[in-house]
Design goal:
GO terms for molecular function: cysteine synthase activity. This protein is α/β, with parallel strands linked by helices. The protein is built from 13 helices and 10 strands. Bound molecules: pyridoxal-5'-phosphate.
Length: 360
């Protein structure tokens, strides 16, 4: 869009939009930090930050709020403008929800393999889904459409690490540490998260340093994902060595928001283990969470086993990234898994043993 002088009416709309976002934040409660003690890991306490409990069902609720705020405060988003972004689904659901709240139209450019439940959720919010072959660069396509037609490109992958206020403002790191304050080990040994945009790991890593804590950040990554290969080689040109069925993480390339310097370790997890992890979480917590929550669970157990082997105790915090209902027709459908040659039984048996779950 050309730079045009902002009118008094434009500024009034902007103030109204910012007030609407502030009201939404005030109506929304913080997400729960669930504690789990496992007999196999004495003295080690596990905590799961339930990001599925946001109004739009995933941790992308925080990101979408930040991206809209960032676009508005940078003078890039105006009344009546169409908003667009590239997404594997969860971000688009949250962005579509915020667009509707602000009275704006929203377009999501997403891979055609995205879970049908997510596509339905986006359309139900009145947004448009542009499905592209998964080999195509959805971000480039969203950027081109925005430039050609004067849309506002929210650019989650380009802006996630800077749109979030990493010093505080109830970002996820500040929220976790406040909720840990009265626990036996308030300073976690590890905080485990996935990397999609890289925004969460960047915020956690920066905030822990800012607060002068010794806690470490571990990224739980699908085997061969670009965060893992890039973090190990220090090379930003790294690409994924294998695709993954886990949505939201395991990117094909090193995204602009992947800040390797603030991540202390990366644990790679096979898809069968991640999916079994999601199934095990349902048995453990009584609710369904998505594949990336399973990836995190498996990485937590690996870090806990290391602590136990070193004779250490302490707390490990991780994230439940999104609701499992979105994957009813994919990760939680035995026929879908069989058709793709994914066998969960060995992974699930091992996880149940570690978690002390008796097979139902
Ligand atoms: C985006 C996403 C992640 C990763 O978070 P980032 O902050 O984008 O790195 C993990 N799990 C799910 C379900 C996601 O949608």
């Amino acid at each position: 869009m050309n730079a045009v002088a902002e009118t008094a009416a434009d500024r009034r709309w902007l103030h109204g939009a910012l007030a609407t976002l502030e009201q939404e934040a005030a109506r929304s409660a913080d997400t729960h930090l669930l504690r789990v003690d496992l007999p196999a890991f004495p003295g080690i306490r596990f905590y799961f930050k339930d990001e599925a409990s946001h109004p739009t069902g995933s941790l992308k609720h925080r990101l979408a709020r930040s991206l809209f705020l960032y676009a508005l405060c940078n003078g890039r988003l105006h009344e009546g403008q169409i908003v667009i972004d590239a997404s594997s689904g969860s971000t688009a659901i949250s962005e579509a929800w915020f667009a509707r709240l602000l009275g704006l139209r929203f377009k999501a450019v997403m891979p055609d393999c995205t879970a049908p439940g997510k596509i339905r959720a986006i359309r139900a919010l009145g947004a448009e889904c542009v499905l592209v072959p998964s080999a195509m660069d959805a971000s480039a396509m969203a950027r081109e459409l925005a430039t050609a037609r004067g849309l506002c490109y929210l650019d989650q992958f380009g802006l996630a690490e800077r749109a979030t206020d990493w010093r505080g403002n109830n970002n996820i790191a500040e929220s976790i540490l406040a909720q840990m304050a009265r626990e036996p080990d308030p300073e976690p040994a590890w905080i485990v998260c996935g990397a999609g945009t890289g925004g969460t790991s960047a915020t956690l890593g920066r905030y822990l340093r800012y607060r002068r804590l010794d806690s470490r950040v571990c990224v739980a990554e699908p085997t061969g994902g670009a965060f893992a290969t890039g973090w190990r080689s220090g090379c930003r040109d790294a690409v994924a060595l294998a695709p993954t069925r886990v949505e939201g993480i395991g990117r094909r390339r090193v995204e602009p928001g992947f800040l390797f310097d603030v991540v202390d370790d990366v644990v790679e997890v096979d898809d069968a283990d991640s999916i079994a992890g999601a199934w095990a979480l349902e048995e453990l917590l009584g609710r369904r969470y998505g594949g990336s929550s399973g990836t995190n669970l498996v990485a937590c157990l690996e870090l806990a086993a290391r602590l136990r082997a070193q004779g250490r105790t302490g707390s490990i915090v991780s994230l439940l990234g999104d609701r499992g209902e979105r994957y009813a027709e994919t990760l939680f459908d035995p026929d879908w898994l069989t058709a793709r040659g994914i066998c969960l039984a060995p992974s699930l048996a091992r996880l149940r043993a570690q978690l002390g779950i008796v097979a139902p």
